[in-house]
Amino acid sequence: MSTRGGTLAPSVVRAEGDARSRTRLPLVVHVLAMGTFLMGTTEFVVAGLLPEIAGDLQVGVARAGLLITVFAVGMIVGAPLMAMLTLRLPSRLTLMIALGVFAAGHVVVAVGSSFTLLVAARFVTALATGAFWAVANVVAARAVGPAASSRALGVVGAGAMLANVVGVPLGAFAGQLMGWRGPFWALAVLGAAAVALIARHVPHEGRAGKAVSIRTELSALRSGRLWLVLAACATTTGGVMSAYTYISPLLTGRAGLAAGLVPLVLAGFGVGALAGFLAGGRLGDHRPYMTTIVAPAVTTVLLLAICLLSGRAAPTIALVVLLGLFGLGANPVLISLGVRFAGRAPTLGSALTVSAFNLGTAIGSWSAGRALVSPLGVTGPAVVGTAIAALTLIPTVAIALVQRRRGASTVVAGPRAAVQD
């Protein structure tokens, strides 16, 4: 190989090859993203179907919102619990079992007539979803290595963001045309089909043959930086989901938007979230700490603006789209940092970030539901979201300061400190 009449050194050729390989992620990353697309659709589709579900089951809209809250609680419990229970199982088998339970849970929701039964089915489905998401993050990170882990996790997480662009709006349209149970039948069928995709494309390189132990995994809990990451995961997602869970009543009852246009706004939020997630993943490989500070800062401003301008349709729609762009942009970086700061326990680190995200969703959606029936009315959820999102700056700034201090001490102490770090 030559250039300008000269011959490139082998090291240059290898460097170019490495650069090309870094531009392409392994196929398994995209297969896992398809799985998270289903997970994201089922978690968020209820937000677009709340009035229909509430009317059919004869419960209030705020109570129907518990279907979102209980799903988040199930993922809080399921991600670390299932990560521990499946520690010695191959990753591929764990992913397949999780998708099988996912499909079965949606069948129960599609045929159930009792609100209590639906809540129970959503909880069990969430346990499986938490297991899938935690293991998928680790499989994706290992497939690309540390240099591109934020980008790979951004793609995996973008599957859930794509759900807001395609899955949730289609689910809302389908729910209005054929009844709210239709989307759950579709998710059951797609979940069953995804089992075959995972079996074919995810490598058989699970944890069965590795010397792993629960004690080793639990050692990650001693990391102070990990706890800061988890706090940021909870608040950044809680702030956004507080407003998003009850965005339909805000758009129709306050901004005066027709109910038929709500799915289009949800799609706009999803497009913004997809773009923000992918951009956040790319930025996170180069400027992780700046990304985790700027994204929640902008999110707080956007939520405050929604509180103030929600009486006008056009500004509210624009702000919801921007909320999608910035609101979840730090998430792939936080997942990557969680896996990194967990040290020898990446699976538990990944699982705990999933739990933290959903803890934020559970607290945020519950608080927003209470605010919805308060004197604040339909703007209450956005007010709650503003306060929660602002709290994200505390742990993210703390992480940046700790890392700067550790970096300075490494420079002073020399190579030995770098190795220990």
TrEMBL record:
Keywords: Cell membrane, Membrane, Transmembrane, Transmembrane helix. CDD domains: MFS_NepI_like. Gene3D superfamilies: MFS general substrate transporter like domains (1.20.1250.20). Its main location: membrane. Residues 28-407 form the Major facilitator superfamily (MFS) profile domain. It is a multi-pass membrane protein. The keyword Zinc does not apply. InterPro entries: MFS, MFS_dom, MFS_Efflux_Transporters, MFS_trans_sf, Tet-R_TetA/multi-R_MdtG-like. Pfam families: MFS_1. The chain crosses the membrane at residues 27-50, 62-81, 93-113, 119-140, 152-172, 184-203, 224-247, 259-280, 292-311, 317-339, 351-369, 381-402. It is found in: Cell membrane. The keyword Membrane applies. PANTHER family: CHLORAMPHENICOL EFFLUX PUMP RV0191 (PTHR43124:SF3), PURINE EFFLUX PUMP PBUE (PTHR43124). This is DHA1 family inner membrane transport protein. It comes from Streptomyces clavifer. The lineage of its organism: Bacteria, Bacillati, Actinomycetota, Actinomycetes, Kitasatosporales.
